[in-house]
Write a structure and sequence with these properties.
Blueprint (H helix, E strand, L loop, with lengths): L15 H13 L7 E5 L4 E7 L8 E5 L3 E7 L18 E7 L4 E9 L2 E8 L15
Length: about 140
Amino acid sequence: MTKFAFPSHPLLLGFEPLERLVERTARAGADGYPPFNIEVTENGIYTITLAVAGFREDEITITLEDRQLVVRGQQTDPGEDRVFLHRGIATRQFRRVFALAEGVEVMGAGLENGLLTVTLQLCEPEPVVRTIAITRG
């Protein structure tokens, strides 16, 4: 008996990109910064909260790229005219990627008290039933 891996099972057609998506998502989540929470409510609302203390709204971009929610942050250097006796708050950049399933829509985002909140909603797709005509020759 032949054993098939999930994406290569003969009854799963067109799922080859799934393996690449899992690998890409695993690589993107290797860095632990910034920390985040994901919550879900019973009515299909997802909330992603990222701890982005020190970032302003204009230093954060949120984009949807091919069913991936990409959150990027890049702080500007405070300037060479400032003299620090101790510098424990680093200016750093980050990139967090969240893979979204079909039917998950981004509703909005907000930044308050150093927490970036992105709200998503799962929209149930309407079932598609189509009859395929059989042609001769």
